[in-house]
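Reviewer comment 2.1 asked that we show a complete input and output for one of the modelled complexes. We chose the iron/sulfur cluster case, as it is the one discussed in the main text.
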Amino acid sequence: MDNLLHIENGGIVKRSDIPLVSFDSFATILSEFVENDGYIVQFFALVEGDKNKLIAVVRNNQLFILSTEVGENFASLTATASEKFHMFEREIAEQYGIVPKDHPWLKMVRYHANYRGAPDAFGNNYSEDIPGNYSYFQVEGEAVHEVAVGPVHAGIIEPGHFRFQCSGEEVFSLEIQLGYQHRGVENLFTEVPLKRLPIIAESIAGDTSIGHNLCCCQALEALGGLSVDPGAQIVRSIALELERIANHIGDLGALSGDVAFNPPAAYFGRIRGEFLNLLQVLCGNRFGKSLVLPGGISQIMTAEQSTIIEEKLKELEPEIRHVCDLLFSAHTVQARFEQTGTVSNQMARDLGLVGYAGRASGIEYDARVTFPTESYRQLPANRNEMTNGDVNSRATVRKEEISHSIHLIRLLLNKAGETSSTTIMQDFTLEPDALIITINEGWRGEISHCLMTDAEGKIERYKVKDPSFHNWTGLAMSLRNEEISEFPLCNKSFNLSYCGFDL
Amino acid sequence: MLKIIKNRIEQGHKTTSYPKEPIELYKRYRGLPKINQDCDISVVNQCAAICPQDAIVASERKIDLGKCTFCGRCENVAGGAFVTFSQDFGMGTATREALLCDGSLPALADHAKDHFKKLFGRSLQLRQVSAGGCNSCEADTNVLNTPFFDLSRFGIDFVASPRHADGIHVTGPISKNMKSALISTYEAIPSPKVVIASGCCSISGGPFYGSSEIVGDLSAIVPVDLYIPGCPPHPLTTLHALLKFFK
Ligand code: SF4
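Response of the prediction step:
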């Protein structure tokens, strides 16, 4: 444990200061760390000179970093230590062709050739369409049948492929194949001029524009020596909370629609739009795109905008309360929500779930509290009471977070006397030979970006992690032994990002 | 039951009377740019240099709305000497060329193909395909089904099966991994069919232009009939385009 270097969220680390240990100690230290209620924030590969390097950033209530050098393969930590490594190790194999030996399920993640031109870890040459030469997991037996859905789904949603192995109505296994949305975001970040970075970050996952762009801009600010005034931080925090509320409300509406209870679905659908319009009041875009820039915000919040927000909250808050009451007190809804798609606390811990999916299973972690950025240091935390891990808990957490976020926005509006100035995107240079990690609690949970610069201050490696990267496995597990008809409900209660995962 | 009625009364009637009556968006919404053709070329060049999307063609003093994300940065150069924004959300076009814009766009209704109006004017069923979209285009298309916009009142619906559809509405820069699925969906739609490119991603790659993992241009794969710019297009931009083009 002594070898782990303690780092700060948004603090610069000199690359030469990152502890480099033998793979054996790397494995031992990390195994011990995750066993003691430690979680992985980032675990990725890069090529340094002619060496393959692995870097791990882990957290308990603090952040730590560690690195090691490996050859063409290494002994899988998923196999020996914890499932928390599972997706990260598959990603390392896909991105760099470095193979985690004895990984229990070494399968491609997003289906693309590796960055190093190394032999493909999965034996694909990418002339075939996704999933290449992979044959999906199959359960055999007389009464077993398979249901395959997607990539194109029966609605206006993102693409992904789902395979259910069922006996009658009961799901034995759900395999989720993503990658259809892969746009090569990480590499693009290292190839384009700085002026494009916030625009790309805002479109990693459009429903999390503020969250991802905050991670990007906070990193650029630290590396570029830019400071953000408190007034701008307040607006950024308000925007992040508006994003959270809009998405939570949209999901409660969708959950309601999925159990065929139409009034709340219609009302929440409309109310969600009102919150998107508040982002438009702040910056002209309903998803908050263009608001956050390195160094601050593109448009200030004057008394006019803050009054509009305040008045809207006054109007909508009781409506939300009433529609929530309508939804959560309906017996027919309760009957569908309760004890459906349960992820036990143990399972959630084993998988390292984050955000409301984790909190609904009793993992308290909220990055706004543990690693506060922007104005969050001065704001109260939320505590959710319902932790059964089922659809009902995930829905209830959303309900609680909506009222908590409204409360936070009101507190922030009261502080917003502190003026801020507008920022324009300028050119600046980045600290060379540095690594920085930024974490924010997006509406789905922990978002993290990690940037590494080379000797010239050019971004050499840009690693993005959306909370969905942790939580998709949680959705797959929640379906075990459920009826297949519960899938839409389970899916909506998690509402994970396809593009945020696929990058 | 009582709760349902109480909520129903509280919610009231929310559907917009657009297009019968005009609708005003909050002034920070940008929409169609107003371009000053007499602007000093050095200012135009400055705008082109800071544009993250390389959407400004300085020599012609035009903005390519197929690339623009409407980030508004160009408006801050020299106090808006070259570009300001008009809050006009009607930006759909029937051709890619028309998106290279000097501040005005051809009237969409005049350029819509007549047989489309005849075939789909009273009923239009669309299959939506997200091909690498960030989910903001998808979300703001979905919004058209909420009570405020209530798209169905115009006879326009999004349907599940391409076999039931009259066309596809595509979002996203067309990731390589979605190319085949997109083509299959297109092929599964009976002819005659329409193709709508929604959002700057499907038109030009959008924020992802230059990435080797995307196709970056829907018209390179299938013929496009209607272009809807934006990042994402405002729901009203989509609604306006659909109504003008098909009604
Ligand atoms: S608004 Fe459009 S043209 Fe202006 S800087 Fe942004 S992307 Fe470029």
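The mean pLDDT of chain B is 89. We note this here for comparison with the apo prediction described in Section 3.2.
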